[in-house]
């Protein structure tokens, strides 16, 4: 009986090592500062993680399909600036779909280049990272974008609103995570994404239209970016042109932390969510502990390495192994 | 040769030289900026600089932007030296890393004027003049604004302040923080700064930092942010958490800060005009080329602005 339990626990650890790491950190930070577990704080961290999280959901598809997306940071700046600008020109009801359409066009363009023209995704999206930044600057003329009437617009609901006592950004994040989690885990399309990322040639020979799968992944990624831009714009009702700068790397860090392979074919939405939460809680926890901020950069890195180690250690059942 | 002939010849030479000077009177001034477009201040600065140069017939400019990239800025410095401009204005992307490039210009006898945020002291020997705001004074003035308000409210013996700084390592951020932290204990010795964290000049980041502060401290009376963009981010966090009565003081008054002051939510800031900044830099370069005496630290004035006196200032365009 106890042997079965041990095996079960071992199996659980092997599958969910990153979850174990997450719990370890939560306990550690709580011991350092009791307020860490304050419901207001938990809600606050989840709310601000929602922006990164929503972006990471889409990029998870791209990564599992064996590609990269480095353009999401500047694409998020683009959607934020566009929706804020159009808000005052067209009103929120038209500005939101217009912004989604424009962002999806960018995603479709990348998807076309990587999927159908089979260009290297690293080069394409690295180029788009700066091209979209330039596009945003051209669009805004380099000016900060602010909504004129900040008090009298319902647009603020996406970033600042609450339903059932839960902030709307969290609801969007959880809802989208559930939807995309089912899409990836339970539908034929999801299996095709794994197949294309695991072995593209084999997938093609088994009749999967690889180009189309990749194209749709990028489209989903840009949809998630537009959603993140909407939350961001609505949260602060004003923005700099560089609001999303650097987020592309944080997104990738969260996904890899969750256990997806950059080579494609592995990863889940649930693990990405855990990765996002770990990053969010590390940042917040270090602020609450009150470490000097130069030290925080180092400590953040140490914690990330520790998390990856715990994950791997749980998978192989011991902390140290002479063979990989 | 008689002495009269010598005199005539030298007079001719001198007048020739003058004629030459008149023909070459157009000064060619190159500028390499930090990161135009990253924020409205820098965008407005560039526009004002170009406008001021166009309004002046004797000036021809080469306007470059490093896009925040140190390597690109160094390459641009080298380009400007190659083009043999008469003077170079640099808005350093990094106060340390650009020193070798500035030294190169110095060795090529091209006067260098640093604008907006100064380079590190090791490079002072290679620079003619620094034109820009006095960020230490700005930090000190923000401390005075905050202290005066605390005294008015009668909480100068107990108030607790949190401090959100700009990008770590950036000269402006370091100087403002220093000015604030040195001056506050002088004017309000009993006020304590309970925490300091960077907001990276970013509104969203600052909002996150402030959210954590609000959880960590039950009693926050004042927030000092290194610029209004971050100050407004912190204000948003406080509003979302329903924490009233906090005195917000920033620096570099942005339009969003000015509007928040109009609404009575944000107490004060430092009025710093990018137009003044750009015009002062160009004028300093022109003065240097005309051989005029220019102070090494050529500051333009950046006055205090609070809800009380904001009527004297127009709303910033950025």
Write a brief structural summary.
The complex is a heterodimer of chains A (324) and B (318). Chain A is mostly helical and 324 residues long.
Describe the model.
The complex is a heterodimer of chains A (324) and B (318). By secondary structure, chain A is mostly helical. Chain A has one domain (17-147, 168-315). Chain A has 14 helices and 4 strands. Chain A has a two-stranded antiparallel sheet with strand order 1-4. A two-stranded antiparallel ribbon of chain A has the order 2-3. In chain A, strand 2 and strand 3 (166-167) form a beta hairpin. The radius of gyration of chain A is 20 Å and the shape is globular. Chain A starts with a helix and ends in an 8-residue tail after the last helix. The model of chain A has no long low-confidence stretch (mean pLDDT 90). Chain B has 318 residues and is α/β, with parallel strands linked by helices. Chain B has 2 domains: 12-133 and 275-300, Rossmann fold (3-Layer(aba) Sandwich); 135-271, Response regulator (Rossmann fold, 3-Layer(aba) Sandwich). Chain B is 46% helix and 17% strand. Mean pLDDT of chain B is 90; it is low at 11-23. The A-B interface holds A 33, 35, 38, 40-41, 44, 48, 137, 141-144, 146, 160, 232, 235-236, 238-243, 283-284, 287-288, 290, 293-294 and B 36-40, 42-43, 46, 168, 195-198, 202-204, 207-209, 211-213, 215-216, 229, 232-233, 236, 240-241, 254-256, 318.
User: What string, H for helix and E for strand, traces the elements of chain B in order?
Assistant: HEHEHEHEEHEHEHEHEHEHEE
Query: In total, how many beta strands of chain B?
Result: 12
Terminus-to-terminus distance of chain A: 31 Å
Largest beta-sheet characterization of chain B: 6 strands, parallel
How would you sum up the major sheet of chain A?
2 strands, antiparallel
Sheet/helix structural class of chain A: mainly alpha
Order of helices and strands of chain A: HHHHHHEHEEHHHHEHHH
- Count of the domains of chain B: 2
The second-level CATH architecture of the largest domain in chain B is 3-Layer(aba) Sandwich
At the third CATH level, what is the topology name of the largest domain in chain B? Answer: Rossmann fold
The percent range for helix content of chain A is: over 70%
Quantity of strands of chain A, as a count: 4
- Seen as an oligomer or otherwise, the chain set is heterodimer
Tell me, briefly, the overall form of chain A.
globular
Mean pLDDT of chain A: 90
User: Into which percent range does the helicity of residues of chain B fall?
Assistant: 40-55%
Q: What number is the mean pLDDT of chain B?
A: 90
Spatially, the strands of the biggest sheet of chain B line up as: 2-1-3-4-5-11
């Amino acid at each position: 009986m106890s042997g079965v339990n041990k095996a079960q626990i071992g199996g659980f650890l092997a599958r969910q090592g990153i979850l174990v790491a997450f719990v370890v950190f939560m306990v550690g930070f709580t011991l350092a500062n009791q307020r860490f577990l304050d419901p207001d704080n938990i809600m606050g961290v989840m709310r601000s993680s929602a922006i990164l999280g929503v972006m990471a959901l889409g990029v998870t598809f791209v990564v599992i399909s064996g590609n990269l997306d480095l353009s999401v940071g500047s694409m998020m700046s683009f959607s934020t600036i566009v929706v804020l600008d159009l808000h005052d020109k067209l009103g929120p009801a038209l500005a939101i779909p217009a912004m989604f359409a424009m962002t999806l066009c960018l995603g479709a363009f990348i998807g076309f280049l990587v999927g159908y023209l089979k260009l290297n995704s690293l080069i394409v999206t690295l180029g788009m990272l700066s091209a979209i930044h330039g596009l945003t600057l051209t669009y805004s003329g380099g000016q900060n974008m602010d909504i004129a009437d900040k008090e009298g617009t319902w647009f603020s609901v996406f970033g600042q609103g609450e339903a059932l006592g839960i902030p709307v950004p969290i609801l969007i994040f959880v809802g989208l995570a559930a939807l995309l989690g089912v899409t990836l885990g339970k539908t034929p399309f999801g299996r095709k994404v794994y197949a294309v990322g695991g072995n593209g040639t084999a997938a093609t020979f088994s009749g999967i239209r690889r180009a189309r799968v990749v194209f749709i992944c990028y489209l989903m990624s840009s949809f998630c970016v537009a959603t993140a831009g909407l939350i961001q714009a609505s949260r602060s009702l004003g923005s700099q042109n560089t609001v999303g700068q650097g987020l592309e790397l944080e997104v990738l860090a969260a996904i890899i932390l969750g256990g997806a392979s950059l080579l494609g074919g592995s990863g889940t939405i649930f693990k990405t969510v855990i990765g996002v939460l770990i990053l969010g809680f590390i940042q917040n926890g270090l602020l609450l502990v009150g470490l000097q901020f130069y030290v925080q950069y180092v400590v953040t890195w140490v914690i990330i390495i520790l998390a990856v180690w715990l994950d791997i250690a749980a998978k192989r059942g011991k902390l140290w192994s002479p063979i990989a | 040769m008689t002495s009269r002939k010598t005199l005539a010849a030298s007079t001719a030479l001198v007048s020739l030289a003058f004629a030459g000077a008149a023909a070459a009177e157009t000064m060619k001034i190159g500028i390499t900026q930090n990161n135009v477009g990253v924020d409205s201040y820098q965008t407005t600065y560039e526009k004002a600089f170009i406008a001021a140069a166009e309004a002046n017939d004797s000036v021809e400019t080469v306007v470059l932007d490093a896009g925040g990239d140190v390597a690109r800025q160094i390459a641009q410095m080298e380009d400007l030296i190659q083009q043999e401009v008469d003077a170079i204005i640099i808005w350093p992307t990094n106060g340390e890393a650009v020193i070798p490039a500035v030294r190169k210009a110095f060795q090529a006898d091209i006067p260098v004027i640093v604008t907006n945020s100064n380079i590190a002291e090791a490079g002072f020997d290679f620079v003619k003049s620094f034109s820009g705001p006095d960020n230490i004074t700005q930090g000190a003035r923000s401390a005075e604004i905050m202290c005066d308000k605390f005294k008015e409210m009668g909480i100068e013996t107990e108030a607790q302040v949190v401090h959100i700084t700009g990008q770590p390592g950036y000269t402006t951020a370091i100087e403002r923080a220093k000015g604030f932290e040195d001056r506050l204990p002088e004017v309000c010795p009993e006020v304590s700064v309970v925490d300091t964290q960077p907001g990276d000049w970013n509104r969203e980041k600052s909002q996150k930092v402030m959210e954590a502060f609000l959880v960590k401290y039950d009693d926050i009376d004042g927030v000092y942010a290194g610029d209004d963009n971050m100050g407004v981010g912190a204000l948003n966090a406080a509003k979302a958490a329903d924490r009233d009565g906090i005195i917000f003081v920033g620096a570099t008054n942005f339009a969003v800060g000015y509007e928040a002051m109009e609404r009575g939510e944000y107490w004060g800031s430092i009025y710093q005009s990018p137009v003044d900044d750009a015009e002062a830099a160009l004028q300093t370069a022109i003065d240097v080329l005309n051989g005029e005496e220019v102070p090494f630290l050529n500051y333009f004035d950046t006055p205090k602005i609070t809800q009380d006196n904001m009527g004297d200032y127009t709303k910033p365009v950025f």
